[in-house]
Q: What sequence folds into this?
């Protein structure tokens, strides 16, 4: 098990501890729920010995009626128990949903995070598994405890101290089961994981059928799946042996006492017990203890292990506490953006993507970053925007290290618009005001008109109309994101290929409008034409062999001094 | 229900499913027989046990035969437990074998059908068939046994009750009918509430997916908390419907807690009167009360019946795929490479026709790609360029006409010959392999590290691969790859094997202009001997090839060098604005005037 598994019992314990009064009521109603069982053996014994066996059917039926009343009282208790269970389990589910959502957001927003494709499955499937299993586990363990206690008390009441002889085999059966739990848990986890691997490998092959056939790699592809299918089959066989272990636990815990009672019966009868008491004892064992133990063992063996395994994975994928950053010591002095010896790589063995970069971007400058793909343009944009943290050096905004600023404060000073525009299901206005909730209607109008978004807003039905990403083309989504940027008062704007789905005319309009807005504008260019509009161009190049070069200058300077730039421009000319 | 069932078995799809299930069940082998035997023994012991216990109770007062009666009880218990233990183990083994066999049969069939499989079925749907449906169908053997054996205790109990005393039997039967009615009501009531609950859950999931797609925006805006509140807004509905589900549960649990035990008390009461009347013994009364409990177990036997229905439905979904025809391959080999150092690679299309959705896309197409030539395929979007690429490497077969490689019709070639001779690089390659190295090696038959590095370098993939945490050994799943990087790995994979014919289906579209130029230079280098068919959208790409095949209205409109075709305004229009506003060709035409002005 992983290190986080330690926290799983803690989470379950926490979910219970939050409702101390509900737990007390649960215990009280459970005591009432077990009443019919507690009376069952004794009542049957009395009905036989004082009633049916001695020719007094009336007395027998009266005893059975008493049992029937107990059954009704028990059913009332059952209803209450389910209600209390809901009070405990539902908030737990809410808590899990919150964790899953928080974790998915957290993981996909950290550096190098990727869209968390498993989040939806966790939300819709795994949370429900945990909810059902948790409720089931509470119900079963509680039921087993009260049933076992009632059965033992009942037998002892009927047969005296001899009845306590059922305890050793019962405890032995339980101990056998508990001892095998850890191994059962591991097998169950293997089973779940190998099943997921089968799905994953099958999915890879199915989604790559064209490529598999084109590469003539049918056998290799099948061998990959076969490997996982075999592993799953092995896990299934091992898991089946665990089912056998559970059956044996029940045999020892409940059937052995039954055999014991039968063997002791002649002796019990000789020492004054009646036929009714023996029959009553059998009722306690076969009707009370046996089903309760079987339910417990199967419930824990399957349900609780499922609970732990699934919850463990939810916790792994859940939110992890991040150290809070200290509040801003002072406001930045000016808005010059400075990279000072910044080095960044995507792994300890990896070559740096950005290597000891020194750059000053004065307030108000329009800078365009160009270079071949893989040169690290987006990485640099991330470093400047402080969504990437350099391994060496630092980025400063107005003299303050950006790494020291918390995300909300940072968002007031710089805006990063990435390539993939974010439009969420909400109103048009909510989407436009995303980065600046206080924007007025007039400001919205100005931004929409300036960026050429008016026809889209009109088509959607105005600012109060609902919109979701499916209603807009890729270019329109980018315009919405750019309008957001235009609305904010943030002094630094960074566009990371944020106009790649716009046509060149729209792109030019956007870049001129945003440059004319007053603050600093940093553009990672998708097309070279962006460079022609810049005050300064930063050319990044990654030569094979790992030497990264960064040169900057005006268009004319670079044409003169940088062969790489000439190559880029020349290529564009055809 | 009956007529429906009968209709089902006449349906050929169901017949195929049932035949498949029969083979699947057989794959469980001896284990399934062990299971059947063990389950029969344990069910038989279970049904005899109450009677034996009753006998023992009755024998107690006299003392005669007590020992043998007790031994019978202990023996039955032992048989029951042993049967269950063996049954547990056999269940796992039988399921594992059947499911594994079915899954691999399906997988092998899928790759034998080839890409056509995903044209007939959604990929996600196919994965479900391999995983869930195959696993449901794989349990058919075990489930069939359990349906049979599961019926023994409840049915046997009702018979036993009737044998003990007709009145007792009737009482139990009436109680069972009441129970069945209750379960039906619950299923109806609850399904609606569950529907509402799932809907609320779906709303939260949709909002979450939205937010995940905008992760970078959210990270930069520091708006995680704001997003969390937005996503969790439908939580109130979830709570409300969740509580309603519990209220349904409360009702059912309360009823179940009453009906079962009351039924048993009634049985004991009726049996008690029988004891008074001298018809029954104490032992029989005890046995009757046990049989009443066992009879109530009929619910779980019905559960196995449901499982059998699911296995059948799963079997049908697997059988549907298995009835799709596979791609047949021939046995022919290609003529040996020419002695002049060339690899051969003459590709010929003769009167080829292919339709999509009933309309011919390519119709009567003739084309000869000379051995060793680099030929660009151009045409407006929807002209069938990708289809032509697929035909050239037999990823699809024409309805009419033939495609020949070095004089041999493609369907005559053996799979090894064909796939060793024709390689592909795609616009969106699907990468398969645990590591980057395996990905590049996927189609190659030689597995030297130098070849992998060389192919990566040719595809300009070496720089970014070396920057990955473990370089070429980086796990594919752990490598954050952009579209351009995926494309370069796809190219490297195609370069890793010396194919006679290399087909590039828009395989450089996501590369930036410099990389595209570098890769393009490799592709169009002369004297390599490899035939190349390049589906191109950029004029610059077409300009570097020997010949351009211009596809129009399902045929080759012309096969000439780019420079000659460029004089035709219709040809130039192929790369014009209608290719898409954001496409580089627009740039290519627009920017130069400005640049020329700047540099002069």
A:
């Amino acid at each position: 098990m992983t290190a986080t598994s330690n926290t799983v019992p803690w989470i379950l314990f926490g979910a219970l501890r939050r409702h101390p009064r509900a737990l007390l009521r649960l215990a009280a109603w459970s005591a009432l729920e077990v009443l019919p069982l507690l009376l069952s053996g004794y009542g049957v014994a009395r009905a036989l010995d004082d009633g049916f066996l001695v020719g007094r059917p009336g007395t027998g039926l009266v005893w059975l009626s008493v049992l029937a009343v107990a059954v009704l009282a028990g059913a009332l208790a059952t209803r209450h128990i389910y209600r209390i269970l809901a009070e405990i389990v539902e908030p737990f589910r809410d808590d899990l949903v919150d964790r899953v959502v928080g974790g998915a957001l957290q993981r996909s927003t950290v550096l190098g995070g990727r869209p968390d494709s498993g989040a939806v499955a966790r939300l819709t499937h795994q949370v429900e598994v945990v909810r059902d299993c948790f409720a089931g586990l509470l119900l079963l363990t509680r039921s087993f405890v009260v049933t076992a206690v009632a059965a033992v008390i009942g037998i002892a009441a009927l047969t005296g101290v001899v009845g306590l002889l059922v305890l050793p085999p019962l405890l032995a059966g339980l101990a056998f089961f508990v001892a095998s739990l850890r191994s059962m848990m591991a097998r169950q986890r293997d089973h779940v994981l190998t099943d997921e691997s089968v799905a994953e490998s099958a999915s890879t092959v199915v989604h790559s059928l064209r490529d598999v056939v084109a590469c003539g790699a049918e056998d290799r592809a099948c061998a990959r799946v076969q490997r996982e299918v075999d592993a799953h089959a092995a896990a299934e066989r091992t898991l089946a042996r665990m089912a056998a272990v559970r059956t044996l636990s029940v045999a020892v815990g409940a059937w052995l006492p039954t055999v014991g009672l039968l063997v002791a019966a002649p002796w019990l009868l000789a020492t004054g017990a009646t036929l009714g008491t023996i029959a009553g004892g059998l009722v306690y064992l076969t009707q009370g203890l046996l089903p309760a133990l079987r339910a417990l063992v199967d419930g824990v063996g399957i349900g609780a292990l499922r609970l732990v395994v699934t919850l463990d994975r939810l916790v792994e994928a859940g939110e992890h506490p991040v150290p809070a950053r200290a509040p801003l010591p002072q406001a930045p002095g000016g808005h010059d953006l400075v990279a000072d010896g910044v080095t960044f790589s995507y792994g300890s063995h990896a070559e740096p993507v950005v290597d000891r970069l020194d750059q000053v971007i004065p307030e108000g400058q329009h800078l365009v970053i160009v270079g071949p793909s893989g040169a690290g343009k987006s990485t640099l944009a991330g470093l400047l925007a402080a969504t990437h943290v350099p391994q060496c050096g630092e980025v400063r905004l107005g003299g303050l290290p950006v790494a020291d600023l918390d995300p909300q404060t940072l968002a007031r000073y710089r805006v990063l618009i990435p390539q993939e525009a974010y439009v969420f299901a909400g109103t048009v206005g909510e989407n436009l005001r995303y980065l600046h909730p206080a924007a007025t209607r007039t400001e919205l109008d100005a931004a929409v008109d300036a960026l050429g978004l008016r026809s889209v807003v009109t088509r959607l039905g105005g600012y109060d109309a609902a919109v979701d990403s499916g209603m807009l083309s890729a270019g329109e989504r980018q315009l919405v994101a750019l309008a957001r940027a235009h609305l904010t008062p943030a002094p630094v704007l960074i566009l990371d290929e944020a106009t790649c789905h716009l046509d060149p005319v729209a792109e030019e309009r956007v870049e001129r409008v945003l440059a004319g807005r007053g603050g600093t504008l940093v553009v990672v260019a998708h097309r070279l034409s962006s460079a022609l509009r810049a005050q300064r161009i930063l050319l990044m190049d990654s030569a094979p062999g790992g030497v990264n070069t960064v040169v900057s200058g005006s268009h004319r300077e670079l044409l003169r001094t940088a062969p790489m730039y000439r190559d880029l421009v020349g290529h564009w000319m055809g | 229900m009956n007529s429906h069932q009968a209709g089902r078995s006449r349906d050929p799809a169901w017949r195929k499913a049932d035949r498949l299930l029969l083979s699947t069940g057989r794959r469980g082998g001896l284990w399934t027989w062990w299971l059947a035997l063990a389950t029969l023994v344990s069910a038989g012991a279970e049904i005899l046990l109450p009677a034996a216990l009753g006998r023992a109770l009755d024998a107690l007062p006299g003392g005669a035969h007590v020992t043998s009666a007790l031994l019978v009880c202990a023996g039955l218990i032992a048989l029951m437990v042993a049967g269950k233990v063996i049954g547990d183990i056999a269940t796992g083994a039988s399921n594992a074998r059947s499911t594994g066999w079915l899954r691999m049969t399906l997988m092998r069939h899928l790759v034998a059908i080839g890409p056509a499989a995903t044209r007939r079925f959604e990929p996600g749907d196919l994965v479900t068939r391999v995983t869930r449906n195959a696993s449901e169908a794989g349990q058919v053997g075990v489930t069939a046994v359990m349906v049979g054996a599961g019926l023994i205790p409840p049915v046997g109990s009702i018979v036993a009750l009737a044998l003990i005393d007709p009145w007792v039997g009737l009482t139990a039967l009436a109680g069972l009918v009441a129970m069945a009615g209750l379960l039906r009501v619950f299923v109806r009531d609850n399904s609606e509430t569950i529907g509402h609950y799932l809907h609320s859950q779906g709303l939260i999931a949709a909002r979450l997916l939205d937010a995940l797609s905008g992760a970078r925006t959210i990270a930069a805006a520091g708006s995680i908390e704001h997003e969390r509140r937005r996503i969790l807004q439908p939580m109130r509905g979830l709570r409300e419907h969740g509580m309603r589900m519990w209220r349904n549960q409360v009702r059912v649990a309360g009823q179940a807690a009453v009906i079962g035990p009351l039924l048993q008390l009634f049985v004991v009461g009726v049996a008690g009167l029988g004891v008074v009347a001298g018809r029954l013994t104490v032992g029989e009364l005890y046995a009757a009360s046990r049989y009443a409990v066992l009879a109530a177990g009929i619910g779980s036997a019905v559960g196995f019946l449901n499982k059998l229905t699911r296995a059948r439905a799963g079997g049908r979904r697997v059988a549907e795929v298995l009835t799709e025809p596979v791609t047949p391959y021939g046995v022919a080999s290609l003529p040996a490479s020419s002695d002049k150092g060339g690899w051969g690679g003459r590709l010929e299309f003769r009167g080829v026709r292919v339709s999509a959705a009933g309309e011919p896309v390519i119709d009567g197409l003739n084309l000869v790609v000379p051995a060793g030539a680099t030929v660009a395929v151009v045409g407006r979007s929807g002209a069938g360029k990708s289809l032509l690429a697929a035909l050239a490497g037999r990823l699809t077969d024409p309805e009419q006409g033939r495609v020949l490689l070095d004089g041999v019709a493609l369907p005559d070639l053996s799979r090894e010959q064909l796939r060793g001779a024709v390689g592909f690089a795609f616009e969106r390659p699907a990468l398969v392999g645990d590591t980057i190295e395996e990905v590049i090696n996927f189609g190659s038959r030689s597995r030297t590290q130098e070849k992998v590095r060389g192919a990566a370098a040719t595809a300009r993939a070496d720089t970014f691969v070396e920057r990955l945490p473990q370089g070429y050994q980086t796990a594919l799943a752990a490598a954050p790859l952009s579209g351009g990087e995926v494309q370069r790995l796809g190219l490297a994979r195609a370069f890793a094997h010396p194919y006679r014919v290399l087909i590039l289906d828009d395989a450089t579209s996501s590369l930036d202009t410099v990389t595209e130029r570098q890769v393009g230079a490799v592709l169009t280098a002369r004297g390599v001997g490899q035939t190349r068919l390049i589906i191109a959208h950029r004029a610059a790409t077409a300009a570097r090839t020997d010949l351009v095949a211009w596809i129009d209205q399902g045929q080759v409109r012309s096969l000439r060098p780019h420079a000659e075709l460029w004089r035709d305004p219709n040809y130039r229009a192929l790369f014009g604005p209608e290719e898409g506003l954001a496409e580089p060709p627009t740039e290519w035409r627009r920017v130069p005037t400005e640049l020329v002005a700047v540099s002069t």
Summary: The radius of gyration of chain B is 36 Å. Residues 337 and 343 of chain B are 5 Å apart (CA to CA). Confidence is low (pLDDT under 50) at residues 1-7, 577-600 of chain B. Chain B touches chain A through 157 residues (CB under 8 Å).
